[in-house]
Amino acid sequence: MLFDTMDRPLRDIRISVTDRCNFRCTYCMPREVFGKDYVFLPREDLLTFEEIERVVRIFAGLGTEKVRLTGGEPLLRRGIEDLVGKLSVIDGINDLALTTNGSLLAKKAPALAAAGLDRVTVSLDSLDDTVFRIMSDVDFPVARVLEAIDAAAAAGLTPVKVNAVVQRDINGDQVVDMAKAFRGTGHIVRFIEYMDVGTSNGWRMDDVVPAREIVAAINERWPIEPLPGAHPGEVANRWRYLDGAGEIGVIASVTEPFCGDCSRLRLSSEGRMFTCLFATGGTDLRGPLRSGASDDEITELITAMWERREDRYSEERSGIPLGLPKVEMSYIGG
Known about the structure:
12 strands, alpha/beta, 334 residues, globular, 30% helix, TIM Barrel
C-alpha cells in the first residue's frame, strides 16, 4: 500500500464517470453558471469503461480497496451497469459503491445490483418539495427519490446512505424531520456541513450549520451516542440512537476537518487525478493511457504523485477560505 508524506494510505478512489447532471443543485452546479450554454466535456474526452477498468486494476495492485462511482450524475452515463460489472470482479476491490441524485435509480437499481454494485448513496436535502426544489433547482418530486431509495434497498444495495447538505437559512431547520423519516428504516442519513467546494456556489461561513448543532438538535429529540468509525479514514462521525432505531452520520469537514486520515484519491471523468476535494490542479492520466504507457509506467506515475502528497486544505483554512482557484464539485465528484 502507498503512503503519502503524512503517512496516509491510498485506500479508496472516487471516479467521476461524467461531468453532466440533470439537477442544478445550488451548492454544486448553480444554473447561473451551468446554464443551457455551458459546454460539457465531449464524449471522446471521457475515459472509456475499458480505461477505467485498467486504472482500477492498477490501483488495486497498489492497495486500493474501495471504489465509488460519482459524477455529475453517474447514472446518466450510458451502460453504467457494464462498468460496474467490470469493476466488481477485480481482485482486491472489496467495496464498490455509487453516489446518485436518485432520479434514475429506481429503474437501474436491479441491473446495478446484478452487475455487482455493493451500495448506493442517495442525495436528498429535504423532504419538503418546495425546499427540495429550491436546493436542486429542478421540478422533481421528493416522492420519486424516496421510491428510488426503496428500490435500491429492495435490490440489496444496502445499507442505503442518504446524504443531506445542510444550509442555515434553507433547510437548517429540517434536520430533525430528516432524521425522523429514516429512523428504524435501516437507512443511514448523513448530514453534511455546507462546504466551499469550487468557486461558483457563493459559499459563506454564516451558511454553515456546525456538526455539533446538528447532533444537539437530534439528541434533544432522541438521545444518541457516538459510535467508532467503521473503517480507517471514514469521513462521517457516526451516532447511534439509544433506543436502537439505527444510526446517523455527520460529515463535519468545515468545523472538524478530517484531513489527518484522508485516504481518498479522485479521478475526474476526463482522467485527471486529484489528491484533495479542494485541489487546485490534477495529474493527467488519460494522456499516458492513450499514448501507450505500460501498466508499470502508470504505476510509477500514481506512486510518484501519491508519495509527494501533502494536501490538508480543510485543516489549513481554519474556517476561512484561502481564495484558491479550486475545481468544481461537479467536475471532480463529491
